[in-house]
Amino acid sequence: MKFKIKHLLFFFRMVFPTQTELVRKYNELISKLDSLKEKGLAAAVYTQTTDVESEINGLMTYDRKVLKFDKVHMKKTRNQLIKDDDK
């Protein structure tokens, strides 16, 4: 895992053995964004929309048939993160 705050580069390439572990790591990364917003973070992008070859950390499976995250939880997490931006 690599973090570079000045130009804000997040990099991690991990394989998660279970959906629970993947969601736990996603939640952990999302929780770190609040403090980065205070330092000027303007955007965050989850680029792994689907699993590819040996990487299985996508939001969906390789064939895009299974969403591995609960949509309600993701929406709640996102809304919590941006709640103060509307003020």
Strand order of the largest sheet: 1-2
Report the sheet-strand fraction: 5-15%
Question: Element order, helices and strands?
Answer: EEHH
Overall SS class: mainly alpha
Uncertain stretches of 5 or more adjacent residues: 1-9
Mean pLDDT: 77
Shape label = elongated
User: What profile does the largest beta sheet have?
Assistant: 2 strands, antiparallel
Count all strands and give the number: 2
The rounded distance between the terminal residues' Cα atoms is 33 Å
Bin the helical content.
Answer: 25-40%
Using only CA atoms, what is the Rg? 14 Å
User: With helices defined by DSSP (H or I, 4 residues minimum), what is the helix count?
Assistant: 2
List keywords for this structure.
87 residues; mainly alpha; two-stranded antiparallel sheet; 2 strands; 7% strand; disordered N terminus
Can you describe what's shown?
With 87 residues, the protein is mainly alpha-helical. It is built from two helices and two strands. A two-stranded antiparallel sheet has the order 1-2. The chain is elongated. The chain starts with a strand and ends in a 5-residue tail after the last helix.
Itemize the secondary structure elements and their pairings:
Blueprint: E1 2-4, E2 9-11, H1 19-38, H2 71-82
Antiparallel strand pairs: 1-2
